Structure of Transcriptional regulator, contains XRE-family HTH domain:
Amino acid sequence: MTRPGRPVGELLRGWRRTRGMSQLDLAIEAGVSARHLSFVETGRSRPSPELILRLAEQLAMPLAERNTMLLAGGYAPAYPSHELSDPELAPVRAAVRQILDGHRPYPAVLIDQHWHLVEANPAVALFTAGAQSHLLTPPVNVLRLSLHPDGMAPRILNLPEWRAHLLSRLRQQAVMTNDPVLYDLHEELGGYPGGHAHAAPINDAVSRVVVPLRYRHNDRELSFVSTTTLFGTPLDVTVSGLAVEAFFPADSATTETLHTLATS
């Protein structure tokens, strides 16, 4: 790995401003003097690797960006980055497989930090049926598949609300990670047709609690609520970007339909 061009102080200052923190705020949270932090940001003082990691923790920086800041400071990366197929991540693969298989007959997918599909259980075929092949050619981006007119969008009955929910979530993730790939994806998806969400949610029990996915399958309306599962204590860059998106039936009719489809 090569040392990045931007100095550690510049990177630190950029992340601090992204988080809306003053030098004093960050210094207090990290247990250092504001003067020393100022010297680090201006390049007058070289931070130790321990200080870099402490500051990165307070700024909730992604693990990959913590490695980048360590490299900028002249130190080795602290967090490994394996391929999911590597032997070291065998326990992770086994855990994910158990989650996906255990969620059947309901749909569940494993995605990476850029919303690319990594794995899925068979029930996801419910969502991919009818999508054009260019959206199903790897790497498949599940957000693009969801909102593109050639994907799931024509069958999402509450597309304005679901679209607004996904775009809001993507925007928050882009801000938190400061990832240009996510900003570009947000801009792309925002240009797809889909209308605007209503000022007030649909007046039913589910919509008063969460934004459901209302999906047309053949002549039936299916209703889902979704959950996201993350690895709680990741120490690997790859693992830190993984998430399981699982869909649960929001009503008894959807439950019955999914069980019927699984046995047909």
User: Anything to note?
Assistant: The beta strands are 108-111, 117-120, 213-217, 220-230, 243-249. The CA atoms of residues 82 and 88 lie 8 Å apart. Residues 87-263 form a domain with the Beta-Lactamase fold (CATH 3.30.450.180). The chain has two domains: 8-72, 87-263.
